[in-house]
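Format notes (please read before filing issues)

Several people have asked whether sequences and structure tokens are stored in separate files. They are not. Every record keeps both together, in the order shown below: the sequence lines, then the token lines. Line labels are part of the format and must not be stripped during preprocessing.
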Amino acid sequence: MDKYIEKNIREDYHNLVNLLIEKNISITTMESATSGQIASLITDTEDSSKIFKGAYITYSNEAKVELGVPLEVIIKHSVYSKETAIEMATIAKDKMKADIGIGITGTMGNVDPNNPDSSTPGKVFFAIAYKEVEAFEVNIAPQPSRLMYKLAVAKEIYDVIIKMI
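Then the structure lines:
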């Protein structure tokens, strides 16, 4: 059975937002590979403003550095790394004064022409800064569209967050 079904993923995020509201846990994101998809899924639920602090879309390396990701981390570990995702999650959490920060970086269906040496299609790194910071690497099988790549990553993130809270 395919675990990346759009309707189910949207329902998962609806349930997640309601759980966050119930527990009074705020959330924010710094997204690169998903370019705001996680923030969009969160804000699709009514009353999400009770727990959603805002989001950063840092599609370029320059945007990440501008917000505080150390250039040294990107140079040493690559923009596509757990280390970069950890920085993104931590910075978003701190800047937005949220309980949970999510950082996402990686490559969807094609090689990134700006980072070709570190770009592997389908390889995504994400970190969740909550009580502690945890980082993850996932390999997303080819998807029929950019949207489905983003939703697949969203599902992977949801599966981790729901266990944390």
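For reference, the curators noted about this record: The CA atoms of residues 96 and 131 lie 16 Å apart. The two ends are 26 Å apart (CA to CA).
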